[in-house]
UniProtKB/TrEMBL annotation:
<dbReference type="InterPro" id="IPR029063">
    <property type="entry name" value="SAM-dependent_MTases_sf"/>
</dbReference>
<keyword id="KW-0808">Transferase</keyword>
<keyword id="KW-0949">S-adenosyl-L-methionine</keyword>
<dbReference type="GO" id="GO:0032259">
    <property type="term" value="P:methylation"/>
</dbReference>
<dbReference type="GO" id="GO:0008171">
    <property type="term" value="F:O-methyltransferase activity"/>
</dbReference>
<keyword id="KW-0489">Methyltransferase</keyword>
<protein>
    <submittedName>
        <fullName>O-methyl transferase</fullName>
        <ecNumber>2.1.1.-</ecNumber>
    </submittedName>
</protein>
<dbReference type="InterPro" id="IPR002935">
    <property type="entry name" value="SAM_O-MeTrfase"/>
</dbReference>
<dbReference type="Pfam" id="PF01596">
    <property type="entry name" value="Methyltransf_3"/>
</dbReference>
Length: 195
């Protein structure tokens, strides 16, 4: 279980991010961080799975990154987190350092499609929380990067933005190598497990 100072600070950061988002009329200027119950669920999954190699696609300002890294600290794992906007990645890195989990995170700045196409690593757990219009294009690389026989992909916002992610989820549902289900936490999580 994460220590109380960690939980309190991450909660305060989430409130700060929410206040920022409430003032933005342009969706792309919002931080759009994952909801606390979804982040805590991911932390629990990492512990249950004893995940060592974790990939996050979409760092933003690092709310989910902090939860992933805190859990990776417990499993002696590592989080690689991808963000296209340098300023957001730098903010997330600053918070990770403040909370003492920075040694468990590699911050990668650039287009996620480039990273995914070039990576040869296999990941125990992948969190996909980025621009939804690109998800279907990521699938061929994601399939290759998800650990066989029990690797997990979590896709965020599948209830709140159901129409946008529907084509992507249909692709996954028709792939017999993966089991999947929707979990009604936060904005909706789609959990995919390799068979």
């Amino acid at each position: 279980m994460p220590k109380l100072p960690f939980i309190q600070r991450v909660s305060d950061l989430y409130d700060q991010f929410q206040k920022h988002d409430a003032k933005q009329t342009d969706r792309l200027l919002r931080y759009r961080n994952i909801e606390p119950d979804s982040a805590q669920f991911l932390s629990m999954l990492i512990r249950i799975q004893h995940s060592k190699n974790i990939l996050e696609i979409g760092t933003s300002t690092g709310h989910s990154t902090l939860w992933l890294a805190e859990a990776a600290q417990q499993t002696q794992g590592k989080v690689t987190t991808l963000e296209i906007e340098p300023a957001r990645s730098q903010q997330a890195a600053m918070f990770a350092q403040e909370l003492g989990v920075n040694q468990y995170v590699d911050f990668w700045i650039g287009d996620a499609a480039d990273y995914l196409s070039e990576s040869i690593e296999v990941f125990d757990l992948i969190l996909l929380d980025a621009e939804r219009s690109f998800y279907s294009g990521y699938w061929e690389d994601l399939k290759r990067l998800i650990k066989p026989h029990g690797g997990i992909l979590i896709v965020d916002n599948v209830i709140s933005h159901a129409t946008e992610v529907k084509p992507f989820l249909e692709i996954i549902r028709h792939d017999s190598r993966f089991m999947s289900t929707t979990i009604a936490l936060g904005a909706g999580l789609f959990m995919v497990v390799s068979q």
